[in-house]
Amino acid sequence: MSISITIDGKEIQTEEGETLINVAADNGVYIPSLCYMRGKPCLGTCRVCSVKVNGNVMASCTVPVADGMEVAVADPEVADMRKALVEINFSEGNHNCPSCEKSGRCELQAVGYEVEMMVSRFPYRFPVRTREHASEHIFLERDRCIFCQRCVEFIRDKATGQKIFTISERGTGAQIDIDEELANKMTPEQVTEAAEMCPVGCIIEKGLGYNDAMGKRKFDVKSLRQRTLEGEEV
Ligand code: SF4
Ligand code: SF4
Ligand code: FES
Q: What architecture does CATH give domain 2-72?
């Protein structure tokens, strides 16, 4: 059913039940996001896509649009909430972009630019998490994991559907783990898919570190904002 909503005061015609973050992008409004991948089920783990819907703060990747909805994206209060959420991700891990294999291809870094983050307002935790090297084709740089759960939900053993990646423990002890046996059965394509799906430089394909030259990296060529507005899976 055709409906009408407003985003930052602009009237938009759309279809009932469409996901708000997609409707916004299709109408030229960029909403930062981290865990969401267009075309895949919403995970709702990062809340970086928060906007105001009829005055209430909601994660726009979790909201189906409804007639008469009033959405605020540019509202300074919610824009600052999104920025704070991005900053928390930097404070909660150890991120040294200039020496990171994912720099220029990293969604956290790219979103940091989009929300105009300079430095985190929160104290850095400097967590100590050991790297995981056991499987043949992947290593995990655990300090960079933002616990988005993309790998947990979307990268599965092809034969059994079992999870290959899991998050163990909770709170400050949480860390990403990999099932060595299942990981060693992953096809080369699946290994590449996992490394590319990870929005940060946590899942790294062994032997492939800095494989794109500066200036030719994913977000050097086209920004995250542009890719999102063009409806690409990023
Ligand atoms: S994972 Fe992203 S944000 Fe973290 S150090 Fe690497 S490039 Fe920077
Ligand atoms: S390893 Fe990457 S994809 Fe998996 S939960 Fe951590 S950040 Fe997300
Ligand atoms: S992008 Fe919406 S909750 Fe993460």
A: Roll (3.10)
CA of 106 to the centre of ligand 2 (A): 12
Other CB atoms within 10 A of residue 151 CB = 26
The CA 106 to ligand 1 mean position distance, Å, reads 6
pLDDT at 84 over 90: yes
Ligand at minimal distance from the CA of 44 is 3
Pocket test for ligand 3, best of 46, 114, 153, 228 (most atoms within 8 A of CB): 46
DSSP class of residue 209 equals: S
- Report the CATH number of the 128-209 domain: 3.30.70.20
Whole-prediction pTM: 0.96
